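If you are new to this repository, start here. Below is one unmodified record pulled from the training split, so you can see the exact layout before writing a loader.
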Amino acid sequence: MTYLIGVDCGGTHIVGQTWTTSPEHLVQSVTGGPGNVVLDYTGAIANLTGVLDQLVAPIPADQVGLILIGIAGIETAGHADEIQQLVNQRYQIKTRVISDAKLALLNRLAGADGLLVIAGTGSVVYGRQTGHFLRVGGWGYVLGDEGSAYDITKRAFKQILTRTDAGQTSQLTKPLLAQLDASSVPAAVQRFYAQNRQTNAQLAQLIASLADQGNSEAIAVLVASAQALAQQVITLYQRFETPRPQNIVLSGSVLQHNQLVRAALTTAIHQVVPTVKFNDITTNNAHAALYWHCWAQEENN
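And here is the target side for that same chain:
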């Protein structure tokens, strides 16, 4: 029997899974700590090998056909070859390392061509056509990540600062200061810069809650963030050669849990591309190991 191991190394946690192919069966699933190599390379590698140790231990190495690893931040960090070699040497098993976004694309489209939008803590738009990858955005929280949780928080802060500079008070000021336990706008800004990216991104939940309560400025922030991401989706869609994909996969906590952002995104896209349909990822992306052969065959042709 041949086993395949898939590992999804996200910014908040790692999920590793062992699968058999005939029949398709989940043998084992293991969860570990954060896996973003940009934020904490040493910690991410320790978490990754900890998960892999548990997955590999019960199976003879010669029965594992592949370890496929998708890692958050790998394209920015540039450590793919290094990590691939490390895992190869540690377990003596064929290993491939790609970004977590590509892993999600492979999983949801089952190896076929298409387009994927991810909006969680960060964001990126990915596509694949006839063996070629297309990408828009995903340039990190400082230079990009439109439509992400971090982007929502950043836009809310900018709204507050714009009103403050005009001698006015934003509808968002009081609740955001309370959430940060800050006595003034300057104190809130100081706290924002002192906190890490993940903590700041979590403030988007407050903006979403305010929008649900009818806060017009919170609604405007969410819509603007979604529309910025939609423009990136449209940009990538138009880079596809005909026939262009008719399915767009939506992934990430923002698009899965915030219906206002999701609706604003899909509405903006439909205004330009009215025929596309939107789908969700329903399985963990470690499941993508089952479809790697589709991409590998194209690479070998």
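Two things worth knowing about this chain: The chain has two domains: 3-93, 140-280. The chain has 14 helices and ten strands.
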